[in-house]
């Protein structure tokens, strides 16, 4: 009997069935041979009856021969199954590798892109830190330069006076456009030749109190820049509160408030500091004095 094994995954499952049938066929042939021999007529020759030990030996030899045949067939079957399984495993391994290789390539590309993005982010972070440092330095320089420019502008105006409330229809040199009927009159800018004369005019205006011209009240102020006027105007609220309490104060150039209260003189650089001083010193003292007065008389 010859055996031609077909290759391919589709026919591999037939091999175990075939070898099981082959093993069964060998066993059936052995049984048929024993049956035929048993039905044959006995020989006429004189037979010698075997002894019991000989029968046992023959029986053992037959069993051993049958066991050897069964063991050899089983070993051959095992070898073939192992070979088939190995081929199947190798084929599956190759197929899995072919399927995984593109995924591995894509993952490698993703890793490379992530690495590039990390490098870009690190560079951007370093540049941002450098820009923040430069911005802080430039901001400080800009603030100093702005203060210097504002100081130069106000020094150029140090001999100027600003007059408010002068009625219209009066002549003036280089006056701005005339306002609408009933609008606020335009201010006058007066340039005094000497600074001490300008200070003298301001002092006399303070001593005089209310100033009038042709029945209209006028006001005389120093001529400051717009930024400095904003800084000085920020003290208006606290100045009003100090006036209500009868506390003496004075606003110095460029924007510093001097407060004299209860035998103490305090120079305050900002409106916040002035409000804190008012809340902690002026209000508390007036409240204590008022409570003592009320407790004494009532």
UniProtKB/TrEMBL annotation:
Source domain of life is: Eukaryota
Keywords linked to the UniProt accession: Coiled coil, Signal
* Positions in coiled-coil regions: 107-162
Q: Where is the signal peptide?
A: 1-28
Protein name per UniProt: L1 transposable element RRM domain-containing protein
**Native source organism of the sequence:** Neogobius melanostomus (round goby)
């Amino acid at each position: 009997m010859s055996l031609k094994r077909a290759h391919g995954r589709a026919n591999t499952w037939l091999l175990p069935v075939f070898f099981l049938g082959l093993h069964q066929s060998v066993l059936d042939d052995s049984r048929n041979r024993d049956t035929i021999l048993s039905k044959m007529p006995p020989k006429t020759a004189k037979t010698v009856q075997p002894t019991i030990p000989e029968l046992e030996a023959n029986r053992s030899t037959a069993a051993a021969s049958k066991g050897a045949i069964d063991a050899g067939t089983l070993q051959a079957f095992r070898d073939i199954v192992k070979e088939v399984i190995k081929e199947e495993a190798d084929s599956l391994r190759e197929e899995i590798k072919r399927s995984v290789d593109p995924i591995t390539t894509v993952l490698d590309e993703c890793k490379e892109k992530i690495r590039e993005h990390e490098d870009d982010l690190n560079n951007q972070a370093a540049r941002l830190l450098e820009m923040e440092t430069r911005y802080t330095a430039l901001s400080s320089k800009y603030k100093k330069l702005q203060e210097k420019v504002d100081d130069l502008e106000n020094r150029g105006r140090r001999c100027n006076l600003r007059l408010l409330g002068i009625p219209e229809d009066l002549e003036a040199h280089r006056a701005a456009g005339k306002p609408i009927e009933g609008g606020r009159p335009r201010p006058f800018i007066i340039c005094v030749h000497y600074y001490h004369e300008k200070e003298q005019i301001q002092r006399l205006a303070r001593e005089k109190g209310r100033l009038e011209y042709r029945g209209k009240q006028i006001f005389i102020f120093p001529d400051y820049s717009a930024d400095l006027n904003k800084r000085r105007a920020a003290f208006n609220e606290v100045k009003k509160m100090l006036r209500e309490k009868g506390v003496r104060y004075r606003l110095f150039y460029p924007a510093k408030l001097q407060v004299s209260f209860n035998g103490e003189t305090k120079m305050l650089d900002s409106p916040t500091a002035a409000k804190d001083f008012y809340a902690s010193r002026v209000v508390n003292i007036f409240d204590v004095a008022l409570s003592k007065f009320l407790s004494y008389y009532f």
